TrEMBL record:
Source organism of the structure: Cytobacillus mangrovibacter
Lineage, broadest ranks: Bacteria, Bacillati, Bacillota, Bacilli, Bacillales
Pfam families per UniProt: PTS-HPr
Source taxon at top rank: Bacteria
Database matches in NCBIfam families: PTS_HPr_family
SUPFAM superfamilies for this protein: HPr-like
Name of the protein described by the UniProt record: HPr family phosphocarrier protein
Subcellular location: Cytoplasm
InterPro entries: HPr, HPr-like, HPr-like_sf
Keyword terms, alphabetized: Cytoplasm, Phosphotransferase system
Length: 89
């Protein structure tokens, strides 16, 4: 299951937004990846996500696979939209 987002936060995905996302997905058992510029990192890894250097206007894909993938994608969507980090594409 995949969903695409455009990052709208003025500072991009820096430490605070990355922490929010990693914290949101950690309780889920599904594998979850953040894909940006053809590079995929584990969304449960704060260092991996921050190393992507995702700036405002970037388009990222969140990909989840596992027993609770739908709930995981729903949670990611909720965090990204409610925290003003981005919008669904």
């Amino acid at each position: 299951m995949k969903k695409v987002f455009k990052i709208t936060a003025p500072e991009g995905l820096h430490a605070r937004p990355c922490t929010l996302l990693v914290t949101a997905v950690t309780p889920f058992s599904s594998d979850v990846q953040l894909i940006y510029n053809d590079k995929s990192v584990n969304l449960k890894s704060i260092m991996g996500v921050m190393a992507q250097g995702i700036s405002t206007g970037s388009v990222v894909t969140i990909s989840a696979s596992g027993v609770d993938e739908e709930a995981l994608i729903s949670k990611v969507t909720e965090v990204i939209t409610s925290e003003g980090l981005g919008v669904e594409c």
